[in-house]
Amino acid sequence: MAATTPLPRLLVLATVLSGAAALVDEMVWVRLLGQVFGHTAYAVQVVLAVFFAGVAAGSAASDRWLLSPRRLLIAYAAVELGVGLAALLFPWMVGRAIPLYDRVAPLALETGPAHLCRLATGALLLAVPTALMGASLPLLLRWAAAAGADGATGSLYAANTLGGAAGAWTSAFVLVPGLGVAGALRAAAAASAVAAAIAVGLARPTRVWTTDRPGRAAARGRAVSPLPAGAAPLLLFLGGLEAIALEVVWTRALDQRLSGTVYAFATVLSVFLVGLAGGSAAYRALRPKLDPLPLLISVETILCVAVVASLYAIRLVPRLAGPDAAALGSGFVRQAVAVESLASGAVLLLPCTGLGFVFPLLVDLGRAQGPRVGSLLAVNSLGCVAGPLAAGLFLLPRLGLRDSLLLLAALLASISVALWILTRREGAPRWTPAGVSLAFVLALAAPREIRYWGPPPERLVDYREDPDATVSVVTAGSGPPLLKVNDRILGGGFSVFSEHRQGHLPMLLHPDPRRVLLLGVGTGNTAGAILLHRPDRLVGAELVQGALDLARIHFAATNYGVLASPRAEILCADAWRLVRATPERYDVVVGDLFHPWEAGVGALYTREHFARVRRALLPGGTFCQWLPLFQLSTDDLRMVIRTFLSAFPSAQAWLGNLGTDVPIVGLVGSEREATLWWRGWEAARGEPSLRRSLDDARLDAPAELLAGYVGGTRALRDFAGDGPLNTEDSARLEFRAPRTFFARAFGFDGEERLLALPAGPAPVDFTGALDPPDAPTLAADVAAARRMLAALLLHERTQTRLAVETAIEAARLSRTYRRPADVLRELAWSSLHREPDLAAQAFDALLLLVPVDPDAREGLSRARKLAAGSAAR
Questions:
Q1: Contact 543/575 with Cβ under 8 angstroms?
Q2: Measured between alpha carbons, how far is 174 from 95 in angstroms, rounded to an integer?
Q3: Cα three-residue angle 45-24-603, rounded to 5 degrees
Q4: Which residue intervals of 582-677 are DSSP H helices?
Q5: What pLDDT score was predicted for residue 489?
Q6: What is the pLDDT, as a whole number, of residue 213?
Q7: CATH topology of domain 229-446
Q8: For the segment 54-71, what is each residue's pLDDT rounded down to a tens digit?
Q9: What is the domain partition of the chain in residue ranges?
């Protein structure tokens, strides 16, 4: 037996750096290719498939390079430098590819031509850099084998994968937030360059074999139990398919309960890779002590059980990421790092450790049979190509999460049983049938579905597994239905009121809205409100087909049947790409409420997107982007407004509703100041169906309509101030908003600061109005509405006395607007038992305004009795 040598520590470091650079590149490339294809799960699946296809090609090609050991290291250095150069050039390449892709690719997502265009474009962009990546590890393994380094497969794979975990984590938590997209790629290129420099430094004459002939690894080590001929490549292919398919399914399952932020995705991927690295390290430690073939059968059996057990672990995630996590408090580090890592680890670590153990074991067994290491890694990578396509396009849409996991576990069981049958006489573990039987029993008792919804009284009504997301319709008691995507509310319920207003207001700010584009359809309630204004053409874009399917069934009453209307063209398409690629131009574009902390959504608030929307407008057109004030910190709100103002010369802000439940604001951009057309409002009131919808949305009262005006361009510039913009390269909002979300740092501050702006009168054109309002009366009612909203905000901050006093002031100001009196009545009743004297003051003021109010008279009587009782005590 020839003597063995330890791996140089610097070479291990180079392998770590190479893995880190590769994952930073991959994470950033996925983001950049989202700019080409749209930010969809389809894009991620295509990127993964093409990525591993390139890796497979590079791995196979590396076997053809008949090089001396020294030249192997030189070749490795050249490959790493090539990867770094490709990383630096990738943004430029994407910029060149976008016009070509938009010219040939259809806008709809779920079509065969769309899939082919994504595959072709992805292959064009990724072929060279991923092939270089694929050649990297095989070159090192060949050098290690020639140098007589024992156990190199497990050690180098563990180091490379651990580096990948570090790269995935730092790309999301450090590099892109701190350096931007281009800066992160420069950092990855630097890591690749350092790895290349280390390899060049090690490429000196040393005592090595000059060739890497098949079977030499077996000759140097202890006897290796043979697999059946050709079994290793097949098992490596199936192992790659299993690993990536499981990653896709587990990520989808965890996405239903984790935050859905860019940090959550990076955490899941990092934990997945840490498990693989741990498994490889464990193999390196156990390899000299155990017979490989029985070890392989044992690990496959344990892995089968672990995959089934992950179903049970997934059911625990709501507790780990929910009530049990509350004890840790809020905050980014506690929630985004600690809690999400803990929840991911509970599901992933055990099975991923098994996956990481099996890979180097199969490579060593395969090399003992003859195939070169590059060919073996290529076969594994081809399995990784099939994994995301199988999971995303077949398993999840047709079988759902639970049955997809069980099918993948059944594949592992079949492998384990087949190997056990074929090698029973060669020392196969006797407990294998018992282990597979345990997996079968666990599968029978496993939860019937992997679905999440709230505790009672929330009840599931309907459910869809979509390639992009898990979609459900739920109700809370006897309340209206809610539409959820990955367990996050998309619309419906009591927000129907706001959803209708989000459609009506932009239509009233244009004199003749004939062509309308809606970005984000969801329940269809906003689209339905728009269609009531009878535009000639309405185009809507919704990312999740399952949301459209369930909205058509369960929300037809509130969306006015818009999804079945021949006057509306509703596409399953990425709104971001639709704006960029469509040749059409529109009078009105409406952007729905988008959760700013969700991964990929920040692109809809970038300067580039706003500029593209401006180009999609017809002359005189307007764009209204709705913002969720209840999910934005004041600093983030200022940044979004600054970014909006950088794209539109004229801008306004309008509150979506005069309330505090879910405060929203619409940014309205145009070439010149938008105007509310009073004649258009009167005409809308003349249409019976539209009048009913306006009445339900409280847009029948002029004060309710005009009091929401926050301010124009100058006021918004003063509010936003100077500071950075949200761009595609910086992605500031996508990385900052989750920190606000985890810290629970949003509230009513943004709404209060907007209300404090010197708004001035709302821009209204009364030309052609049949019944223009009395100006002093309208001004008094608008002032009353603003004071009413101030009272509600004070009430939310538990400043009860000041809230009631402000509500009394609002009710006294109002002339024809009734709602301030209603709000005063609500505040009076809510303070009855805590502060009866204050309630009595409120009811007394209400009776002075509305003498015939039995409810207020009863409230005053009760308040006085309670106040007298308190004084007596």
A1: yes
A2: 25
A3: 65
A4: 607-615, 634-647
A5: 86
A6: 44
A7: Growth Hormone; Chain: A; (1.20.1250)
A8: 999 999 888 887 777 788
A9: 7-150+179-206, 229-446, 488-758, 777-872
Between residues 136 and 469, which one has the greater pLDDT? Answer: 136
What is the pLDDT confidence band of residue 149, given thresholds at 50, 70 and 90?
low
Q: Can you say how many angstroms the Cα of residue 654 is from the centroid of all Cα atoms in its chain?
A: 28
Tokens of 287: 């390899």
The answer to whether 116 and 46 are in contact (CB under 8 A) is no
Residue 218 to residue 225: CA distance in whole angstroms = 10
> Rounded CA gap, 130 and 314, in Å?
33
- Residue position matching structure tokens 């306006």: 694
**β-strand partners of 311:** none
The pairing of beta strand 568-572 with beta strand 586-591 = unpaired
Alpha carbon of residue 337 to chain centroid: 17
Res 223 pLDDT > 50: no
Contact 198, 191 (CB under 8 A): no
Give the up-direction half-sphere exposure of residue 340: CA atoms within 13 A in the CB hemisphere: 30
829 burial (CB, 10 Å; 0-12 / 13-18 / 19+) is middle
Q: What is the largest CA-CA distance in the chain?
A: 106
Give how far Cα 248 sits from Cα of 153, 187, 373, Å: 26, 27, 27
User: Which residues, listed in sequence order, are joined to residue 229 by a DSSP beta bridge?
Assistant: none
We find that the CATH architecture of domain 488-758 is 3-Layer(aba) Sandwich (3.40)
Omega prior to 228 cis, within 30 of 0: no
Q: Of 32, 82, 89, whose CA–CA distance to 61 is shortest?
A: 82
Task: Provide the residue count of the chain.
Answer: 873
* Angle, CA of 516, 101 and 647, to the nearest 5°: 45
Of 428, 409, 426, residue with least CA distance to 298? 428
Query: How many Cα atoms sit within 13 Å of 566 on the Cβ side?
Result: 0
Burial string for 213-237 (b: 16+ CB within 10 Å, else e) reads eeebbbebbeebbbbeeebbbbbbb
User: What's the mean pLDDT in 285-302?
Assistant: 86
Contacts of 282 (CB under 8 A, 6+ apart): 353, 356, 357
Q: Does the 7-150+179-206 domain belong in CATH 1.20.1250?
A: yes
The CATH number assigned to the domain with range 777-872 reads: 1.25.40.10
Q: What is the DSSP letter of 468?
A: S
List, in sequence order, every beta strand (DSSP E) within 226-337. none
Same fold yes or no, 7-150+179-206 and 488-758: no
Query: Reduced to 3 states, what is the DSSP secondary structure of residue 745?
Result: coil
Token output for 785:
């509405």
Written as six digits, the tokens of 57 are 């090609």
